[in-house]
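Holo prediction. Input below; ligand is FE2/S2 (inorganic) cluster.
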Amino acid sequence: MRQHISFNLNGRPVSMDVGAHEDAVDVLRRRNLFGARESCGQGLCGCCTIKVDGVPVSGCLTLGLKLDGAEVETVEGLEREGVLDIVQQAFIDAGAFQCGFCTPGFVMMASDLLARVEAPTDEQIKDHLAGNLCRCAAYPEIIAAVRAAAEKRSAHAQV
Ligand code: FES
Ligand code: FES
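Structure of the complex:
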């Protein structure tokens, strides 16, 4: 059985039919958004992180039907008119990935942290990213990227 839902996706209204057992990652793929990736499928790795009504959630554990009426943000939505946001760029500059499979989830959680904490300590960064796993073990570079993004944003705010 399918149900028609409407929601805002990265600031734009969308409407679509969604199956009763379809998860949010699959719904997003049908909108050609492939940043949120399904890996463990059990809420354990963070690769599928999206934001629903401002809260980071596991797309693999979120029913597509739950997106009805929500504000949904994905890693693709961080970019503005072809320009990567500070966190995305910091991950590239720091080389904070190897295969890149986990990267969108880390970027989403790092972005969420910086929206809440202006100048996070390394411990706060580690705590906030504790639910995200990187099989390539790029953790030192990931933490450095988040730190650099926070510093860059702070420098921009002072200009
Ligand atoms: S795929 Fe969703 S948390 Fe791992
Ligand atoms: S960069 Fe490969 S899993 Fe993180």
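The chain has a mean pLDDT of 97. That is the main takeaway for now.
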